[in-house]
Amino acid sequence: MTTYVLVPGFWLGAWAWRDVTAALRGMGHEVHPLTLTGLADRAHLASPDLDLDTHIRDITGLVEAEDLNDVVLVGHSGSAASVTGAAARAAGRVSRVVYVESGPVPDGMAQIDLTGREFVDKRVVDGWRYPMPSWDELQESGSSVEGLGEPERALMASRATGQPLGTITQPLALGDDAAAFAALPKTLVSCSFPLTQVKELIATGHPAFAPLAGPEWELRELPTGHWPMFSRPGDLAILLSEMV
Residue 37 and residue 58: Cα distance in Å, rounded? Predict the structure, then answer.
């Protein structure tokens, strides 16, 4: 049995992992899908004061409160910075970090730097909320919607909540935990970007991909769009079940 903590990306909550959670539990695994503060069923806690540290504490707090060990910590898309920070702080309880359609945010950089500040800034409302863009806008930004039918799109659009801006603008600061994070086994699950291209970018030393050349990295592929928990949940669960 493996213990999983599943962290959703922008605008989503634990509900987004429903089918993956059910499949993994059906295999006998312990699974903890998590809603980060200010989103979904915790939207009532949203405020301009929320920042990256809040979301890091959400993850480490769950791990500590449930006394979890040998955790496979899974982050999707925009949760990369919070997952990286939490893995670093709780490295002694984490056995592997899995980035689904994502990757580790470099120390000192903010999640918004990878998402695109200009893209985010012009969509912010009330000065601190980043609502889910339209499907056309998401595709134009490079987020593939392959595999999402009308039911999946309707579900996501109806349940999406605005992302508190501070959670993606605060730079990641690993500090003394950087070495512990660097030593952790890590897996990249590429869905909308062919793994052959990922490997080519690693080989050519592309700054965003070169770190994935380290021996601690495993590269996996699940061809579909940017949201595999909706488009291929069963296959994603099987893939995750192979990770220890």
Answer: 7
- Strand pairing category for 186-190 and 217-221: parallel
SS3 of residue 1 by DSSP: coil
Q: Are 159 and 11 in contact (CB under 8 A)?
A: no
Do the Cβ atoms of 146 and 192 come closer than 8 Å?
yes
Exposed, middle or buried by CB within 10 Å (0-12, 13-18, 19+), for 124? middle
Listed in sequence order, the DSSP H helices in the chain are: 18-26, 52-65, 80-89, 111-115, 117-121, 135-140, 150-159, 166-169, 178-183, 195-203, 228-231, 233-241
pLDDT in tens, 117-166: 999 999 999 999 999 999 999 999 999 999 999 999 999 999 999 999 99
- Contact call for residues 87 and 181 (beta carbons, < 8 A): yes
- pLDDT tens, position by position, 61-116: 999 999 999 999 999 999 999 999 999 999 999 999 999 999 889 999 999 998 89
Secondary structure class of 23 (helix, strand, coil): helix
